[in-house]
Amino acid sequence: MKVSYIKFRIFLRRLTAREKAGIVLFVLFFLISLFQAIKDINQYRLIKEKPEFVFKKIDIIYKEIHRPTDIVPVNCSAVVPVVYTKVISLKDLPVPIKKRKFVDMVLPSILIVNFEIKQYRKFVMYIKKKLEEGKEILPEEEDLIGKLLEKYKADGLNELLTKLNVNPVSLVLAQAAIESGWGSSRFFVQANNLFGVWTFNKKRASKIKAKNADVYLKAYSNILESIKDYYDSINLGWAYRRFRLVRLQTDNPFLLTNHLEKYSILRQVYVQRLKSIIKANRLEKYDNCRISPDFIH
Fold first, then answer.
1. Residue 48: its pLDDT value, please?
2. Global pTM value
3. Which residues on neighbouring strands pair with residue 79, listed in sequence order?
4. Per-residue model confidence (pLDDT) at position 195
5. CA dihedral over 285, 288, 294, 297, signed as positive or negative
6. What is the 3-state secondary structure (H, E, C) of the chain?
7. CA 72, CA 2: separation in Å to the nearest integer?
8. Which residues contact 99 (CB under 8 A, 6 or more apart)?
9. Which end of the chain is more exposed for a tag (fewer CB within 10 A), N or C?
10. pLDDT averaged per 10 residues in sequence order, the chain, 297 residues
11. Environment class of residue 257 by beta-carbon count within 10 Å: exposed (0-12), middle (13-18) or buried (19+)?
């Protein structure tokens, strides 16, 4: 080993300054090339892994309503994702027309929220499978899971999947119909508040005052935001823990309504009313409606 070292030093002494500089440049070039190759391999690995789960998005159309004819009729097999930012009261319309216009107005936003929640739910299941298979979780995946766990106050992926879930469209429509009087309540018309959601925060910027009381209801920028807030209540509220567990086993709206008695002070009367509205108006036919694929990418 010592002899080899001595020979190497003799070799270096015989080199000219230009030859030594050439060797240094060669070594530097080699190291830079090696570093770039390692970087490219890592980037390729990340790029290769990312497309395993791709979030799909909906191209939402925002629209104001000034008259009933502004409401876009829904085609259940290909619903146009229209979100209404300004609504009107439907109370003066004949009852059958009022109900149809109400569904046309609210259904797209329900489908959009359900679509988004299902996307996140699929992502969590994808991460759960990766962990079970011992696969590496990418930094951006870990970051998103952390945000979801924090938002839904979940201790793990199983609890997150229990909370991060959707309700049958018929059930959401029935609750919205009851709480807004089929699109005729002041809270809905003035604040896009479909579910009569209260706020006890007087400093909240978006709110309207209830009549004859020093309390306020939340105001939303559009119908979509109202439905998102409704889902936050259902998916996070302690009162709906049993509802969420049953929801894992069935999507039957008549079975699920049995566990929404705490949604109203009317308790069982409210539950029976929900069932009656779903049945009388055949709202179950909307459970299989889908956003038009032309607006999904």
1. 47
2. 0.82
3. 291
4. 95
5. positive
6. CHHHHHHHHHHHHHCCHHHHHHHHHHHHHHHHHHHHHHHHHHHHHHHHHHHHCCCCCECCEEEECCCHHHCCCCCCCCECCEEEEECCCCCCCCHHHHHHHHHHHHHHHHHHHHHHHHHHHHHHHHHHHHHHCCCCCCHHHHHHHHHHHHHCCCCCHHHHHHHCCCCCHHHHHHHHHHHHCCCCCHHHHHHCCCCCCEECCCCCCCEEECCCCCCEEECCCCHHHHHHHHHHHHHHCHHHHHHHHHHCCCCCHHHHHHHCHHHCCCCHHHHHHHHHHHHHCCHHHHCCCCECHHHEC
7. 88
8. 177, 182, 281
9. N
10. 56 65 66 61 50 89 98 98 97 97 98 98 97 94 97 97 98 98 95 88 61 79 97 97 98 98 96 98 98 97
11. buried
Please tell me the predicted confidence (pLDDT) of residue 198. 83
Q: Is the dihedral of CA 266, 272, 278, 280 positive or negative?
A: negative
120 near 190, Cβ under 8 Å? no
R_g (Cα) of the chain, nearest Å: 29
Place of tokens 């876009």: 72
Q: How many CB atoms lie within 10 A of CB 50?
A: 12
Sheet-wide strand order for 207-209: 198-199, 216-218, 207-209
Record the tokens describing residue 294, joined without a space: 């032309």
